[in-house]
Amino acid sequence: MNYQQTLDYLFTQLPMFQRQGAAAYKSNLDNTIALCKMLGNPEKKFPSIHIAGTNGKGSTANIIASVFQEHGYKTGLYTSPHLVDFRERIRINGQMVSESFVVDFVDIYKEQFIDIQPSFFEITFAMAIEYFAQQEVDIVIMETGMGGRLDSTNVVNSILSIITNISLDHTAFLGDSIAEIAVEKAGIIKKGIPVIIGERQQETTQVFKEFADKNNASLLYAGDIAKLFFNDNTENYMAVVNEELFEKIEFPLKANYQSYNLRTAMAAIGVLAEKWQLNQELILSGISNTVKNTNFAGRWQVVSQNPKIILDTGHNVEGITYTMDQLSQEKFDKLHFVLGMVNDKDINSVLALLPKDAEYYFCKADIPRGMNTDILMSKSIKFGLKGDAYSTIEEAFAQAKKNAQEQDMIFVGGSTFTVAEVLPLV
């Protein structure tokens, strides 16, 4: 098979949660363990920083990866979902895995997949750990997929666990309450391995304490150790200082919500600084070069001016709340909102947060999970949102650009997949 045929196999022959939803969910690690055994357990051949949480996993992972990369470490980064190219999921020092490796991996093991019957995510994870092991990376920043306890990534050789935050998302699989979801995310806490919690939340505090105590794992809150200062020999790597350090940082991720992810990433860097000989100068440059080093995209990404066009992948209540708050602070004459969502989200709660004084361009992402345009429009009308329906995201975006004046704003969001289809068009 060539590369495109290999992608077709991965996307269509295997259950893929991002496209299909529940059909791809696996409630145990049996397939992952079988795949790892088949490969000779490459996941044990490198240390991993393991990141779970509802929002902010990808941003936190990319910030940390950039800092390690800046220090000269050969840094693997595993994230999901991808926006434009499947290979975005598996990167070393910002460079995507080669097409030839993807093709060869599937060709070599395709027959064995028949017996194991793995999902798309399970195969992608197996591909990643094999690639990282073959390339002899120094460290991997590993983002979980949906949960934690039963996520394929939960077999990695962790040196630090991070849980960014907990909010209601994927409730059909992870639980109906913040506490229940916290239990699933807390499943990444390992015996004797420190864990950093990005945000202190009343509903999750006891859950995380119980898991940490049971595993004899140091429990740290990012807010307690975020304002870090590193002197020349890093002996005082956990020293707390004032806001001066943050003022030195030229942070390229401009969304207001990124301050939480930066704080969490800096806490992680502080915990690991002494052992990994991380110094202040390279930490600051690594943070400043996050986008340059890792090619991170889709989070409050400004792709054009006059009219200003912003793309953001926020898609659940918490993420949309932060994004809409920042959007309300922008100055423009008229807002053109390209909106596409997936059908297994809390649609009504999200729609209730969206501005009513915008012109909406309702559309459907080109995936089976994408919400039908007419249904989305019908639900939106009930919340006072007005606009027209379009058959494709491309058509909706083109019409928004045609209608927008120089002092207007175009916002594209509602789903990772809406942003993914617009990115190649800008």
Task: Give an overview in words.
With 426 residues, the protein is an alpha/beta fold. It is built from 19 helices and 14 strands. The strands form two sheets. Strands 4-3-2-5-1-6-7-8 form an eight-stranded mixed sheet, sandwiched between helices. Mean pLDDT is 88; it is low at 17-24 and 227-243.
Helix content: 40-55%
| Low-pLDDT stretches | 17-24, 227-243
Number of strands: 14
Kindly report the spatial arrangement of strands forming the biggest sheet: 4-3-2-5-1-6-7-8
Task: Average the pLDDT over all residues and give the rounded result.
Answer: 88
Tell me about the largest β-sheet. Answer: 8 strands, mixed
Overall body shape: globular
The CATH topology annotation of the largest domain reads as: UDP-N-acetylmuramoyl-L-alanine:D-glutamate ligase
* Computed CA radius of gyration, to the nearest angstrom: 21 Å
Counting helices, strands and paired strands, the structural category is: alpha/beta
Strand % is 5-15%
What is the CATH first-level class name of the largest domain?
Alpha Beta
CATH architecture of the largest domain: 3-Layer(aba) Sandwich
Q: Supply the CATH superfamily name of the largest domain.
A: Mur-like, catalytic domain
Distance between the termini: 31 Å
The total domain count is 2
Number of helices: 19
